Amino acid sequence: MTYFADKHPLLADIFSRYPDSPQGRRSALMPLLREVQNAEGFVSEARMREIADLCGTTATEVRSVMSFYSTYHTLPTGRYHLQVCSTLMCALAGSDELWDHLVSVLDVQPGDVSADGRFSVQKVECLGSCGTAPVVQLGDEGYYENVTRQKCDRLIAALRQDAPPPPDNPVPVTVREDGRQMTAAGERVGASIHDRKPLPAGGDR
Amino acid sequence: MTVADPAPKPITSGKDPRFAPSLYAHVGQPGSWTLEYYRKHGGYEGVRRAFAIGPDAVIDEVKKSGLRGRGGAGFATGLKWSFMPLNDGKPHYVICNADESEPGSFKDRYLLSEDPHQLIEGMLIGGYAMRASVGYIYIRGEYVHAAERLWGAIEEARAAGLLGKNVLGSGFDFQLYVHRGAGAYICGEETALMNSLEGLRANPRLKPPFPAAAGLYGLPTTINNVETFCAATQILKYGADWHASMGTEKSRGMKLFQISGPVARPGVYELPLGTPFRELIDDWAGGPLEDIKAIIPGGSSCPMLRWDEATLDMPMDYEAIAAAGSMLGTGGVTLIPRSVCIVNATWNLVRFYAHESCGKCTPCREGISGWMVRMYEKLVRGRGVPGDVELILDMSENIGGRSFCALADACLGPVLSSIKLFREEYDALAETGQPLYPARSRWRES
Amino acid sequence: MKVTIDGIPVDLPAGTSALDAVFHAGRDVPYFCAHPYLSPVGACRMCLVEAGTPRKGKDGAFELDEATGQPKIFWMPKPMASCTLQATEGMHIRTAKTSDVVAKAQAGMMEFTLLNHPLDCPTCDKGGACELQDRAFEYGYGASRYGFDRRHADKHYALSDFIILDQERCIHCKRCVRYFEEVPGQEVLDFIERGGHTFIDTEEGGLPVGFQGNIADICPVGALLDNVARFRGRNWEYDHTPTTCTLCPVGCSITVDARNGRLERVVAGEHRDVNEVWICDAGRFGHVFATEERLTVPLVRVGGELREATWDQAIEAMRQGFSGHGSNVGLYLSADSTLEEGAALVALAEAVGTPSRDHWPRYPHTPMSTATLTDVATADALVVLGADLGEEAPVVELRILEALRGGLLPAEFAHGTAIADLRLTERPARTPEKLAVIGRESRLWRHAGLRVPAEGPDLLARLARPDTPDLQAALRLLEEAEKPVLILGADVLNGADTAFSAALSGLAGRVGAKVLVIPAGPNSRGLGGLNLVPGAGGLPYGRLGEVGAAFLSRLDPAAQGLPGRARGFTVVHDTHLTATAQGADVVLPAVTNYEKRGTTVNLEGRLLPLAQAPLRAGEGADLIRALVAVAEALGVRSPVRGLRGAQAWLEARYGLRLAELPAGGRLQPPRPPQDAATGLAHAPQLWKPRMLPRPERRGSGVPGREARAERWELPLAPAPQPGGDD
Ligand SMILES: Cc1cc2nc3c(=O)[nH]c(=O)nc-3n(C[C@H](O)[C@H](O)[C@H](O)COP(=O)(O)O)c2cc1C
Ligand code: SF4
Ligand code: SF4
Ligand code: SF4
Ligand code: FES
Ligand code: FES
Fold first, then answer.
1. What is the DSSP letter of B411?
2. Which member of C81, C112, C724 has the closest CB to residue B367?
3. Which numbered ligand comes closest to the C-alpha of C225?
4. Cβ of C191 under 8 Å from any chain A Cβ?
5. Local confidence pLDDT in tens for the 446 residues of chain B
């Protein structure tokens, strides 16, 4: 059976985001790939063809687009696909060692899946989390940030128990509830926008 | 205005009692992403004012504010908005560039996840001013959490009549959709982004035609960064004069600076443009944790600057950083410690660009993705030979300014600056095969 | 618009690219991704030039250079890709000839381009005709400083029976991808992966047959090669003969490449008014019959068996065979024969006094075309009625698609067709609503805004007085357009008569449409006008079985399921021992149209020249010479005894001057074909069985079709890894 055969509301929702034209139809390509991958872990050739038909294009185009991006997979990954940021800001926080540690502890190489089917690993580029480096992304789920060696081991242990901890989302900012920013010395300085009145709508001209 | 008004002293310090963070005023507060919270703090007042003054006045207001694009290039936002054709009878689009993939940049992420309504409001303002009735937020695929918050916020806004037909009774219709990327830095380039959104390979497109003439689906389109749209919200809310009172003459307003590398408090700080680098690094980021030799002032594409008094005294604004030989870029500052081999660090970034090259044009595909990255690998692995650095320089000359888009040039930022500043480290590797600064453990235990 | 290139001033129309400006001025710039009939994309970055423009001051006048008093030129800080740069008034351009910066930039770019290119030239089919090889010699450094292993990839990847891809040689110019997308409108080939890993592939299990072969012509390197011609010869060993394809009535320009008397390859020629630079796959790959299993000597039936004979023996056998039949002899020829051959046959028929003469295929009545192919390509509405263009006239399909993407005919310069036409864009907007197809389902359907399934000869009448909303819409399309064209094919023409023609002109006049009629045979438009149809009391080809004796030139009725013989003596003139030839009394060896000089008439009524490629044909003779032998056997003297005589005859009788026909031919519609019943319906079929190439048989080293079908299940090379390429 095709993947989208019984998912008409989902399809309708995706297509409704784009213009009702051949070009607009084609825009659904990435969202459809994402749907399939999140459900099946990868996108098979049969699914590529199915998506091509839905988007009014060919399997060649689907494969071409899909292969352009680094987060679509054509082969199954492990249940926990761990993506380690390896770009400079994370490297300055030890991501190279983190990677080596993961690969040796999990006994899996990039491109492979561990024997128990649980783990696969991939080096990825800057995840926009350089302020909370190093960072590991779990599948399409979320990030684990400030991953120290101990945190890394805890994470692996939890995943081995099939109990992935919820993703972190630390927010590295120092604006306080009163709207003022705090310096490194712990002083609240400057003003607060709370004390500023928005201009009245239409009243200033 | 009378001539005699003594110009007030510009606000160029985050500690200035007149300066209040606005973009990040709510980032980090519990529930800040909900409509209820946003409304309680004056949310959607900016767009109300926009509706009251009319679309042309909105563009004037943005022009007057001095706002420049916060995505990296620093192009005047009001001017860009005014390029959109008027009354051409075609549908127009506004797109928010939330692809944030430039290494060292992580400011948009928290705007998206912590204050999504601020962005929605900014896009409503932009859409209204530019006569667009559809907006897309192109968010990088990895920002799952932020995308979920955005979806939630858009749902809330739709239910509250802030999106859809006749927004707030203004007669203006606006639909807003989120499109998730899937892992490609080049999607941040505006024309590649449009291709990606159209379900094509994300190769950059030829310019001209510029997006304002023929962008998404061949229709007039304007793309702005997340921070740019959010700043527009604040400008409409508090006025162009308020915005223009911050910063320096050509760099007006506030900016989100991001600090990474070995500092006490890495993170995002909202400061007026023109804030001295020293204040940023010491007063805000808490100072370096080790001996630093260089900084990248605005994201990985910006040439490195030497860590010295001149750099510490440098005002963080477009002009001063350009004068120092680099760029403000996204405002993502990275500190490079003395103990790190600069060739190795640069290799890391070259590898990034090699990995992210879209492959369309020869100098980038072959020069960077094929050759440059191998030269660096060879050097770092201790297999370099004298002459390699000259070869890298000559190769760079053949790449620089010859590529189709700016990605290849971006790679040359770190390459050329690191060779210029730390030639001795390169030479040592090329001649002896040994780095002056051997790798050492940087991973924290706990 | 005045532009100065290396100090040479030229005058150019607005919109010209800097690249065309350079060539127009007689200068040179290397380029790989630009192509005259494709959108410029600026990908290869070879075509760099320095460019500068004058600037207008506040007063609207050009700022002047103080020293010279001339407008001051503000040079752009970096070299620019000239293929995507529009030349503007007063622009100055420097090429490598006058700029060291450009010379260095191009040498550097050449080094990058060659980085991963294998050193294959000695074994590459493109060698000697390779844009990369030539340009590397002219613009390169000479040596590469790249000290690493080159990229390794599949070097023998069959994309289809016809096209083989060497992924290592690809320089990523994207011409092939753009071609499929922009010209035949098929998304069947594209880049996979990105950056340095990018390679070309298809996911369709093979490229579709139709127009795929053109990618072998446009690939600037030897990455995409003609598999039928693979390893058959080096470019400098071939004899190149520019001529006209006569497999269908379009009459595309082609170049026939022969070596050691064998036809090894057909490549497209450029004809701006006919096929631009594209030909169909039949025209390109369907030539193997010209070389394989040719009949090279006459055969005479002796004791029930065909035995090899000399021409003299064959003439003697014909003399005996024809005797007693008097003028009851039928003379029939294939409708791809030249006008000159037709003239020879008519002249002989008149000398013999036989009314039984005919050519096949033809329609009993053929209405006249008033549209040219350029009219088709620039039409603002097109209705295709009862035609399967893929079988009848493939390149017409491409010209229709050209109209649907805006009908932008490339400009022409001193150096020829514009190389970088800035009006062409990638993924062009298309207007399917301009096209209505009425008839049986065909390949063109996919592109049509309006599709009306229908068949039968009354389609024209139904279109003129529409009885369904769809037909009404089609008629409205014609009525509302400024430059509509109506295209008619076999399904309606089989039943055409004079009333049909009248109705057609009535409709065309009413809606202001031009008409393109696709004749039944490649030259039936021309031959029909020579009175080459049965006269009073004569028998048409379809009644061959009723004539006393017959001569058939390159016709194979037995294979059509018709009687393969006359009642009595039957002579067959053909290139192969066809089913009909096997049943004949005398068989004369013929030559193919690749080995002839002469003239053909295409569907527009354009006279187009055929040239003679040096193929080994044994004692094969063209029809003119064969008929001289027949005349001798019949004891008459034909007034046409050679090409020159045939042309003189044509000039004397019809005022056709063919001797000095220019290479591109001449649009000069000859007399309309005479009407005559055929007794047969024409079922167009482009690919005849003997045209099908079997590459595996030709020793190209490519695995057979079955073996390849298996690997198409898994076309993923190199093997993909989860999450990309780390
Ligand atoms: C290779 C490349 C990557 C880019 N990435 C981003 C990005 O991630 N986010 C962004 O806002 N702009 C990015 N840009 C800049 C955009 O092309 C564009 O200038 C910007 O979105 C305009 O918005 P602004 O005027 O608000 O700055 C990138 C540009 C290039 C050349
Ligand atoms: S410089 Fe060229 S190859 Fe690199 S990303 Fe831009 S267009 Fe693609
Ligand atoms: S296969 Fe040939 S035509 Fe296609 S991209 Fe490669 S070099 Fe260009
Ligand atoms: S379209 Fe007709 S004339 Fe042209 S190449 Fe094909 S068969 Fe020959
Ligand atoms: S470098 Fe790792 S998140 Fe930015
Ligand atoms: S960039 Fe390829 S020809 Fe101009």
1. H
2. C112
3. 3
4. yes
5. 455 566 778 999 999 999 999 999 999 999 999 999 999 999 999 999 999 999 999 999 999 999 999 999 999 999 999 999 999 999 999 999 999 999 999 999 999 999 999 999 999 999 999 999 999 999 999 999 999 999 999 999 999 999 999 999 999 999 999 999 999 999 999 999 999 999 999 999 999 999 999 999 999 999 999 999 999 999 999 999 999 999 999 999 999 999 999 999 999 999 999 999 999 999 999 999 999 999 999 999 999 999 999 999 999 999 999 999 999 999 999 999 999 999 999 999 999 999 999 999 999 999 999 999 999 999 999 999 999 999 999 999 999 999 999 999 999 999 999 999 999 999 999 999 999 999 999 999 98
Task: Report whether B157 contacts B117 (CB < 8 A).
Answer: yes
* pLDDT of C698 over the 60 cut: no
Structure tokens given for A174: 């120092």
Give me the amino acid identity at C357.
Answer: R
Q: Kindly report the protein residue whose alpha carbon is nearest to atom 3 of ligand 3.
A: C219
Which residues, 6 or more positions from C170, have their beta carbon under 8 angstroms from its beta carbon? C199, C200, C221, C223
Query: Among partner residues C45, C111, C194, which is closest to B359 by beta-carbon distance?
Result: C194
Say yes or no to pLDDT of C699 above 50: no
Q: Would you report the helix, strand and coil content of chain C in percent, each value rounded to 5?
A: 30, 20, 50
> Do A202 and B177 make contact, defined as CB atoms within 8 angstroms?
no
Of A87, A134, A151, the CB nearest to B103: A87
Say what the ipTM of the complex is: 0.97
Give the B window 241-280 contacts with A, CB below 8 Å.
Answer: 242, 258-262, 264-270
Tokens of C117: 């290119």
Q: Which residue has the tokens 């706990």?
A: B446
pLDDT at site C702 = 44
Burial class of residue A176 in the structure, from the number of CB atoms within 10 Å of its CB (0-12 exposed, 13-18 middle, 19+ buried): middle
Residues of C in contact with A76 (CB under 8 A): 722
Q: Is C172 on the interface with B (CB under 8 A)?
A: yes
| Residue C84 Cα: closest atom of ligand 6 | 4
Quote the pTM value.
0.95
Count of H-run helices and E-run strands, chain C: 20, 31
- Does C195 contact A at CB distance below 8 Å? no
Which region, left, alpha or beta, applies to residue C77 given φ > 0 means left and ψ of -120 to 50 means alpha? alpha
Instruction: Find out whether the beta carbon of A152 lies less than 6 Å from any atom of ligand 5.
Output: no
- Using DSSP's 3-state secondary structure scheme, residue B319 falls into helix
Can you give the length of chain A in residues?
Answer: 205
| Nearest in space to B11 (alpha carbons), one of B236, B315, B235 | B315
**Distance in Å, CA B365 to ligand 2 centroid:** 7
Q: Is C239 on the interface with B (CB under 8 A)?
A: no
Q: Do A60 and C721 touch (CB under 8 A)?
A: no
Does pLDDT of A60 surpass 60?
A: yes
Touching C (3+ Cβ pairs <8 A), the chains are A, B
pLDDT at C497 over 80: yes
Distance (Å, rounded) from C-alpha B209 to C-alpha C394? 34
Q: What is the largest CA-CA distance in chain A?
A: 70
Cβ count near C309 (within 10 Å): 20
Q: Is A12 left (phi over 0), alpha (psi -120 to 50) or beta?
A: alpha
The two three-digit tokens of residue C545, written as one number: 């079985």
Size of interface A-C (CB pairs under 8 A): 68
**Of residues C324, C323, C329, the one with CA closest to residue C548:** C329
Residues with CB under 6 A from ligand 3: C 170-176, 200, 219-221, 223-224
The helix or strand, by DSSP H or E, that contains position B137, with its residue range, turns out to be strand B134-139
Q: Tell me the two tokens of residue B327.
A: 């760029």
Ligand 6 pocket test target in C44, C95, C102, C419 with most atoms within 8 Å of CB: C44
